[in-house]
Amino acid sequence: MAQHVELVLDAKAELGEGPLWDERARLLYWVDIMRNALHIYNPASGENKTYDVGQMVSTVVLGETGEVWLAVHHGLGRFDLVSGRLDIIVDPEADKPANRFNDGKCDPAGRFWAGTMELSATVPNKGSLYRLDPDMSVHTMLTGVSISNGIVWTADHKTMYYSDTTPGTVTAFDYDNVTGNISHSRVAIQVPQEMGLPDGMAIDSEGMLWIAHFGGGAVRRWNPDTSEVMETIEVPATDPTACAFGGENLDELYITTARTGLTEEQLHREPHSGGLFRVKPGSVGTLTYRFKG
Predict the structure, then answer these.
(1) What is the set of active-site residues?
(2) Are 127 and 102 in contact (CB under 8 A)?
(3) 168, 179, 236, 243: which has the fewest C-beta neighbours closer than 10 Å?
(4) Is the pLDDT of residue 1 over 60?
C-alpha cells in the first residue's frame, strides 16, 4: 500500500535541503541553499519563518541551549535569529572560493560534521569532510569527495554512514565516539543510476537508512547491512534532497525538494517541486544530536 505524501508547504524552494527536527520546540528547521534562506516551519500553526543568512546556507544544527549553527558557502558559524547576524567560526576552505559547504550533522558526542563540494557540482573530487569539535578546533576527516552529503550514526555509536552523491555511494565507517575518528571504510550501498543519486538521509530506530534519491523522485528505506531496498516512497517531485524524522512521536518523515535546473515542462508536470512534504512511513526515527560547542 502506497503511503500518502502530503505537501505541507508549497515553498517553491530553489534547492530545499537540510531538514532538522527540534523536538523541544516541535519545529522543523530547513534551508533553501540558493536563496540564502534559513526556514523554521511550525507544523501546529503552518507558519514558516524565513531568515536571510547573507550567503548560501546548506546545513543547520542546534546547540545544547538552542543556539543555531550553520554550514554556509564560506565556512561554519553561529546565527543569531534575533539580530540576523552570522558569525563565521572557521572557514577551512578560504583558499577554495569555487567550493561551498553542503550537508552536515552532529555526531553523538556533539561534534559538528559538514562537507564541501565544487559550486557547479560538475567537478569531482574537489570536496572534503570536516569535523568541528566543541573546542572550536576543526579537523579534515576526508578529502577527494565529490558532493559531500548525508551523514548519520548508529544508536550504538559504532558506525557512521556517509553519502557521496556523484559516485552514488553510501560508505560505512567504524566510528569512535570518544575521539571522533573514523576508520575501515567500506561501501554499504551502491545506488543504481536508474534510482537517482543518494542525497541527504536519516536513520530510523531499527538502524535502517532513509535516503532521498535526487533525480529519482523517491525516498527509499535501505538496509545498510544487506544493501537491500526495504521500502520506496514516491515523491511528486523529481529531486527530493533530504529527509528527517519529526513529529511528537518521531513517526513523520519530512522531505525537502528542489526545483532548480528543472525545465518548464517538468515544472508544469510537477508544480510542487521545491515544496516541503511529509509522510507517515510506518517507521520511527531517532533524536537529532546537538552541537556541544
Answers:
(1) 199
(2) yes
(3) 179
(4) no
Q: CA nearest 214: which of 166, 172, 180?
A: 166
Helix (H, G, I), strand (E, B) or coil at 56: coil
Domain locations in the chain as residue ranges? 6-279
CATH of range 6-279; options 3.30.450.40, 3.90.1150.10, 1.10.150.320, 2.120.10.30 = 2.120.10.30
Does pLDDT of 2 surpass 70? no
Quickly count helices (H) and strands (E) in the chain.
1, 24
Residues 174, 128: Cα–Cα separation, whole Å: 18
| pLDDT for res 271 | 96
> Please, are residues 246 and 28 in contact by the beta-carbon 8 Å criterion?
yes
Q: Residue type for 228, please?
A: E
Query: String of b and e for 199-224 (b: at least 16 CB within 10 Å)?
Result: bbbbbbeebbbbbbbbbbbbbbbbeb
Q: Which tens digits make up the pLDDT trace of 134-147?
A: 999 999 999 999 99
Cα distance between residue 142 and residue 192, in whole Å: 24
- 229-253 confidence digits (pLDDT tens): 999 999 999 999 999 999 999 999 9
Distance CA 36, CA 15 (A): 10
| Mean pLDDT to the nearest integer, 33-57 | 98
- DSSP annotation of 258 reads B
